[in-house]
Write a structure and sequence with these properties.
Layout (H helix, E strand, L loop, with lengths): L6 H7 L9 H8 L7 E7 L18 H9 E4 L2 E2 L5 H10 L3 H4 L15 H8 L3 E6 L15 E4 L6 H18 L6 E6 L6 H7 L31 H9 L1 H5 L3 H31 L6 E7 L18 H4 L3 E4 L8 E3 L4 E2 L3 H9 L13 H5 L8 E6 L4 E6 L2 E6 L6 E4 L17 H17 L17
Parallel strand pairs: 1-6, 1-7, 2-9, 3-10, 4-5, 4-6
Antiparallel strand pairs: 2-8, 7-8, 11-12, 12-13, 13-14
Amino acid sequence: MLEPINRRDFMKISGGTALALTARENRIFAAEAPSMPNIVLILTDQQHLDTISAADCSHIQTPALDKLKNRGTLFTQSYCGNPVCGPSRSCIFSGRTSSEAGVPVNGRPLREDIPNLGQWLSQHSDYETIYSGKWHVPEGFTHFIPGFNVINTGIGGQGNVCDTSSSRACETYLHNRTSDHPFFMVASFLQPHDICEWLRINTYPPDQLRYAELEPELPPLPDNFEYDPREPDYVKRNRQRRDPPKGNWDEMQWRYYRWSYYRHVEMVDAEIGRILQALEDTDHLNDTVVIFTSDHGEGMGHHQTVRKSSLYEEALAVPFIISWPGHLPQNQTDTSHLITGMDIFPTVCDFAGVPLPEIMRGRSLRPLLTKPDPAWDDAVVCESNSNRGRMVRTSRYKYIAYAKDEVDQLFDMREDPGETRNLSADPQYASVLKEHRERLIEWERQLVVAPDLKYANVWWRKG
C-alpha cells in the first residue's frame, strides 16, 4: 500500500519538476487537506448579484460560475464595501473601510501605513503572490503592485480585449510553475464593466429595436423599476445625470440594455472558466481555495438606475462564492449571514494560517463554512459618494443616510426586498430608525479615518 505523501515533498523528490501524475497518485493527494492551500481570488467588475444561471437567473448562461457555485457556497447577502471601483478594491485588499484606507474616490492609492493583502502575505508567509489584470488602487492597469508579482496588466479599459490576456496569463502561470511554495493568485477581470461604454454608445438609441429578432429574448423590466420618490437629493441627481434620462428611453430600450448586460457577464464567465479548467488540468482543484466576487454591482434598471454609486441593493450587493472541493461544503447557499468585501482579507489569512494586522474591519468567513452555528454579527456598514453616504444593513432592515441631507431611507428587507417603500418618515418605525442611526454613530466612532479626510466624521447630525 502506498503511504500518503504531500505535494510539496513530492516536488522535492522529483527535483522540482512538474511531472504528470497517475490517477492513483491524484487520489492520494485529493485525500490530503493541506494546511496552507493555494488560494485564487477571482474579481469581476460591476457584476449584479443575480447573474448566475445555477442560482436561478433564467436570462443568462454561466457554465463556469455554475460549476464554481456547485462546488462551493454561494452567499446571497454579500455587499461591497463601497459601490465604486477603486474604493471597493481598497476595502478588499486592506480589510478596512474606504475612508480608513484613504480611497473614498477613484484615483487615490492605499495609505502607505496600511499593507495590502499581497504585502501582508509576502511578509508573513511563503506564499507566492501573483496578480493578473485590473488593479485600480490607484492605477487601473499597472506592472507595479506592492507585494505582488504582476504577470499581466490587462490592456487598457476595454474588457472584451484585456480579460482574455489576463485569463491566459493565469492559465500559463498554473501550467508552468515549478515552485513548491503555495500560491495566492488574483485574477482581476474588467467585464462586465464594458456596459458603461455600451450605455454611452446607446444613450440615444433608435426608435425601433436594432435587432428585431431579439425581441422575444429580452428580459422584462425588474419588479422594482418604479421607486419611492422620497429619496436623498444625491440619489435623484445621480439618476438624472445618467444615460437613460438623456436618451428618454422607453420600455423596449430598457429591456434591450438588460439583455446586453447579461451578454457582458457571459463574456467574463468564459474567462473564469479558463482558470477553473487550468486548476483541474494542473491537479490543483482539491488543494486550492477559490474565492469569487465583484467589486460592486450594476443598476440594471432597478429603481431606473444604471451603473453604480448608489446604496440601493443593485449597486451594492455582489455575487460571492467560496469553493474548496473535498474540504468545504459544496452546492450550498447561505441566505442569512451578512458579509462584505472587507471579509476577504481576513478569510485569506485564515486559510493561509497568517495572523491579522492589528486593525481589521472584516471577519474571516471560514467559520460560516466549517461550524454548525458560528457567532456572527447581524449588521454590516458600507460607504459611498466620497464617504458622504452610508448604509447600515441588519438582518431585517436597511438604513441609508447622506451627510447634510435631511432625507433618510429605511426599508424592510423582509417585506420589501426591492426597496420600494421608504419607511423613514413612518412613526411606526421611529424606534427602528433610531436604532439604526445609533448603530451608524457607534460604528463611526470606531473608525481610524485617513488623516486627510476631514469631512468623514459627520454623522453626529443624525443623533
